[in-house]
Amino acid sequence: MSGVLKILQHPDINGPCDYGKPNPGMIKQDETEFNLGLSKSVLIGDNISDIMADKNAGAVTNGIIPSNKLPKYLFL
What we know:
Elements: H1 11-14, H2 25-33, H3 48-56
């Protein structure tokens, strides 16, 4: 891990932003800051909004997701 990005905004307080999932802002910032190749990166999430943010950023998604968060069969 090269770093952690924390967003201190909430759409109900600050309004929508590109950094709140499922928007790709956090992932795109990391791509630039750490010179990442998203097609060669492993992204792990525990919520469907994580998967959506990965896909919205153009990333290849790999993840460990609790079974109670997803349908039994989900093809990504």
